[in-house]
Design a protein that fits this description.
Length: 155
Amino acid sequence: MWLLSDRFKELVRAWWIGYSVVGSTSHCLVEKLKSLKRDLRKWKKEVFGNVYAKKAEALSRIQFWDSKERLNPLSSKEAEARLGDLEEYKKCVLMEETFWRQKSRETWLKEGDKNTKFFHKMANARARKNLLSKVNINGNPLTSAEDIKDGVCRA
């Protein structure tokens, strides 16, 4: 989600270069990571804040402009403001979607390989997708596993 923000990589690079730590390589790495963590937390609060609240605010502003437009046409300045609010809403929706996609992957990494019903469904689906039930070699259809093995080896 943070990568969607403008200049994020440059900001992190500037922070990283700006940290001056003396000591062994591993000590420097640990201290720089701690400092980066603090700066990222502060930056996240300043830049993103509460994405859900921002999304709700943008949606209410869009609804305001829509209700105003039903009564009278919007001026060019008001139409620009509405478009800006619409862009803000789209940005918030994209960040929220990215957050949940990353969260689901994190859950899969933590719990996906446990002996769960979900894991077995995923594994079986993958096995079904990778199964060759029939192969045509030189116009000769082969269906049994042994015939397919022999036919592929001969071809």
